[in-house]
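Hi P.,

Sorry for the delay on this. The queue was packed all week, but I finally got your sequence through. Input first:
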Amino acid sequence: MKKFTILIVLIIFLTVGGIFGIRAIMAGTSSAILNSAASFLFGVRDIVQFRGIISENETLRSEMFDLRARLIETEDIRTENNLLRIQLSAGARNNYDLEAVKFFNISYEEITATAFINKGENNGIEVGMPVITGRSTLVGLVREVFNKYSKIMLVTDKRFKMTVLDEGLNQFLAIGNGGSGVQLDFVTLRDDFKENELIVTEVSEYVPAFLVVGEVKSVSYAETDLFKKVILKPSFLELDLRSGFVIKNF
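Then the structure:
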């Protein structure tokens, strides 16, 4: 009888222990699965949050430029009127369709030279339009247009290329050479330039004729060269680049 009782107790013990062991194993497995799932979900959440931060930064940057453009636009209107009078008194054609602008975030790099203006698509600004000072001096060309502001490429930018004329109305190609200069291309050894000779634009689809690009700063060449190296000093660099105009039509 005692042996039978002991056997029964042993069976019950093993049965109960087995059940709890299986539950422990299952609990451990479930815990591992849950932990892995939680780690995966947290990783997905972090990625989503990171992308959200990037998107927010881009939005904030765009809003910052919009705000700055609006602040500049609300400055003293009399300044724009004064500049318009200067533009007209400088001999500009009366049929120019001018949009008064103000410059900000001017940047001169080794290759690029850019600036922003406080007018954009909402004001009829288009890519390729020339930007000038109040004295018909070419500053650059509109390169990118946004709703309320635009980015311009200055004439010293290495991406800048434009057909220009000397005082004898001979054609040359002006190319920005970075820093603060402009170089004339296709200048033969027979082409002569006077010191400080003015170089102006030739008429094109967007650009009227006789906008001042710059004056001759230096002319150099070697006996074995086929072309002269002519460097211009851009005229806009001598001015206080705060306000100007976009020529929308002419």
